[in-house]
Design a protein that fits this description.
By secondary structure, the chain is mainly β. The protein folds into two domains: 96 residues, no CATH class; 90 residues, no CATH class. The chain contains no helices and 18 strands. Strand 16 and strand 17 form a beta hairpin.
């Protein structure tokens, strides 16, 4: 599907290495008179995931957005923010072809080396996409309070790829299961936000969750 202005974890399913820049520079041809520029601080490779920070309504165009702020893993293995440009040359130019090949995280999983469709399971009459913690990661409740660490082998279930507003590298999961136990709420009282582990890996072979 096409990338849009939602607080979502996305996977680059195109064959394009999407350049990521460290700042915005002045450009009259882009929405809000700004465009990604300056130093390139990384790239989003094929099958790599990242999360998007929606543009504020004050700089949105009713017709077309031409850039987005994201959270990604840079070449040094550090989780950081940057900017990607969806309309090189300005709002009057065609949208880059890779924009239509970005997929929400929860639709896809890893088999350890490449991407596959995520498995589904019905829990309490509701269909969820199922993932497994492969590297110990932290998580938070819906209010953002730390809930500790999820151990390797913990199963996670979700129906969406929404990310946190204060913790943009965390994705919403509804249920968890440890070992042969039963499915439970991720956090006390309901769903929780799980750290996707961008600093641990962002490609199919290095993800913290798959």
């Amino acid at each position: 599907m096409a990338l849009d202005n939602q607080r979502v974890a996305w996977v680059n399913c195109s064959n394009t290495q999407i350049p990521v820049y460290g700042s915005l520079v002045k450009s009259m041809g882009h929405v809000g008179g700004q465009t990604p520029g300056g130093t390139q601080v990384g790239a989003i490779f094929k099958n790599e995931f990242y999360t998007l920070i929606p543009q504020p309504t004050s700089i949105q165009s009713p017709n077309k957005l031409t850039w987005f702020e994201i959270i990604f893993r840079n070449g040094s293995g550090v989780e950081r923010r940057g900017y990607i440009e969806t309309n090189p040359g300005g709002v009057s130019n065609p949208t880059a072809s890779w924009v239509n090949s970005q997929e929400p995280y929860h639709y896809l999983n890893s088999n350890g080396s490449s991407l596959v469709n995520s498995a589904s399971e019905t829990i309490g009459g509701v269909s969820y996409r199922i993932f497994t913690v492969k590297k110990a990661i932290t998580y938070r409740n819906s209010s953002g309070a730390s809930q500790g660490t999820l151990a390797v082998g913990t199963k996670l279930a979700t129906r969406q790829s929404g990310t946190g507003s204060a913790y943009g590298g965390h994705m919403l999961f509804t249920k968890k299961k440890v070992g042969t136990g039963s499915w439970q709420d991720v956090a006390s009282g309901g769903a929780g936000y799980v750290n996707l582990g961008l600093s641990l890996g962002s490609e199919p072979a290095t993800r913290a969750i798959w």
